[in-house]
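Quick one, tokens below. Sequence please?
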């Protein structure tokens, strides 16, 4: 039986990608530019750490379709896997100490703190910024994983995985108002 106090579980490189799995060294194409001769060039961007936010059910189904050799299942693959970039606390531009405390107390709606766990591969505290959301072509990401360019670090365990997911989806389901609203 799994120790429910553990927040992370070690990732295995031979398995599917999971929701709340932390990946290292993700390379993504970010921009196409036209050079002087009119040819398009692609710029690559390296993201040191990111956490997968795509749903497990979609990721598992995608992995099953990839494992199936039947051609008709090729159309059922996910086009992109959605991730959020992780940053160290020093990389996050927060000027007020009260905001930093809100992050540590899981009360800041935009940020989520992942505590360090040397045993499970997360060597320092990391902060998820829910605004730093990006998608990676799923074929490209699996190719990077199989060639060991991207490393699976660790993943969140239940109930921390569900807590993270709820915070992420609450942030992205906010209703935009035409002006700032303050409760009284």
């Amino acid at each position: 039986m799994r120790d429910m106090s553990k927040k992370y579980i070690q990732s295995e490189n031979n398995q599917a990608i999971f929701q709340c799995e932390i990946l290292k060294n993700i390379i993504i194409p970010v921009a196409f530019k036209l050079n002087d001769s009119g040819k398009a060039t692609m710029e690559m961007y390296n993201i040191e750490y990111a956490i997968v936010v795509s749903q497990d059910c979609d990721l598992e189904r995608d992995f099953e379709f990839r494992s199936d050799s039947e051609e008709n299942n090729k159309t059922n693959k996910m086009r992109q896997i959605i991730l959020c970039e992780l940053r160290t606390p020093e990389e996050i531009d927060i000027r007020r100490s009260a905001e930093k405390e809100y992050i540590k107390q899981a009360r800041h709606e935009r940020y989520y703190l992942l505590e360090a766990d040397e045993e499970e591969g997360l060597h320092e505290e990391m902060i998820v910024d829910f605004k730093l959301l990006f998608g990676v072509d799923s074929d490209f990401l699996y190719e990077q994983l199989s060639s060991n360019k991207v490393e699976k670090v660790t993943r969140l365990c239940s109930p921390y995985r569900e807590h993270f997911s709820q915070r992420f989806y609450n942030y992205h389901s906010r209703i935009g108002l035409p002006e700032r609203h303050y409760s009284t």
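The CA atoms of residues 1 and 32 lie 49 Å apart. The longest strand covers residues 21-34.
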